[in-house]
Amino acid sequence: MNIFSLEGKNAWITGAAYGIGFAIAEAYVKAGIKNIVFNVRSQEAVDKAMEAYHKAGITNVKGYVCDVTDEMAVKALVEKIHAEVGQIDILVNNAGIIKRIPMHEMTRAEFQQVIDIDLVAPYICAAAVVPEMMERRQGKIINVCSMMSELGRETVSAYAAAKGGLKMLTRNICSEYGEYNIQCNGIGPGYIATPQTAPLREKQADGSRHPFDSFICAKTPAGRWLDPEELAGPAVFLASEASNAVNGHILYVDGGILAYIGKQPK
Ligand code: NAP
Ligand code: GCO
User: Fold this and answer.
1) CB 65 within 8 A of CB 39
2) Most Cβ neighbours (<10 Å): which of 14, 45, 154, 235?
3) Which ligand is nearest to the CA of 23?
4) What are phi and psi of 203, to 5 degrees?
């Protein structure tokens, strides 16, 4: 028996059109998953993502239009998944946004939008899948956390507040539903090369590296940005039976950032 196998399981990964969510979906397919379900905010984004999945040779995937902050739409989506795909064995709360604006220049509406997508939506999605998981006494919920679940930095107050909150939501879901054999854990990616972080890696007008790019390489013992595919092992582990006794844990996949004081200046 392969304790890392996802055979026979269905996974719903929010916002898995590209980036980290897509890489997790690919990893689940390699681990034998029965069906991948994802949702994004427009039909155009669903169609584009479906093309990318098919190009990657993945056909056991279904995409839906659903904004994760819309509670009614999420409840309707969960019913639709149950009817069209089957039970949801694994939920990955991946959809997320960031706004890089100094806190004193940010509007309340901007702050609120980040909290709504990065913290309230994982609650909405988890609450929507938990009753059926409780009935079956089995379920895996994985929340995509961040370095900002532990650290702060300039301009990301709302994001850090949301991801810090998501860490505690993870621990609370574990506390509240562990007795139903539901495991809720977090993955805490370090700095991953995706569209979300592309502005931090853009070349300067003179062709030199973005200062933030050099900063991250100096803060990471590995000396580089990580690729979304490097989250594959941890994402499969937390979705599989291999992690049945791991609950309320945040597994940081950061190339060592949180362990490191940073490269000393030359
Ligand atoms: P990304 O490339 O920007 O992808 C985010 C995905 O979420 C997109 O498919 C986006 O789709 C979807 N999304 C956003 N808001 C949504 C909503 N309201 N409803 C449904 N879907 C929504 O981001 P990523 O870098 O892959 O990040 C994925 C997750 O990892 C996020 O939670 C992020 O905070 C976290 N993370 C990223 C890094 C990193 O370095 N990249 C590190 C740590 C944690 P549309 O916008 O097309 O709807
Ligand atoms: C930023 C980044 C981060 C990362 C990630 C770190 O502006 O500092 O976008 O917050 O995306 O979440 O783990």
Assistant:
1) yes
2) 235
3) 1
4) -65, 145
Q: And the tokens for 85?
A: 């795909």
The residue among 39, 36, 30 whose CA lies nearest residue 5 is 30
As a whole number, the mean pLDDT across the chain is 98
Question: Can you tell me the distance from the alpha carbon of 196 to that of 210, in angstroms, rounded to the nearest whole number?
Answer: 15
Q: Could you report the per-residue pLDDT of 136-175, keeping only the tens digit for each? A: 999 999 999 999 999 999 999 999 999 999 999 999 999 9
What lines the ligand 2 site, CB under 6 Å? Answer: 98, 100, 146-148, 153, 156, 159, 189-191, 196-197, 200
What pLDDT was estimated at residue 1?
84
What is the C-alpha to C-alpha distance for residues 146 and 123, in angstroms, rounded to an integer? 17
With bands split at pLDDT 50, 70 and 90, how would you rate the model's confidence at 224?
very high
- Express each pLDDT in 116-125 by its tens digit: 999 999 999 9
Q: Ligand 1 pocket: which of 71, 72, 170, 196 to mutate (most atoms <8 Å of CB)?
A: 196
Closest ligand to residue 231's CA: 1
Counting atoms of ligand 2 from 1, which one is nearest the CA of 257? 13
* 159 included as an active-site residue: yes
pLDDT of residue 265: 82
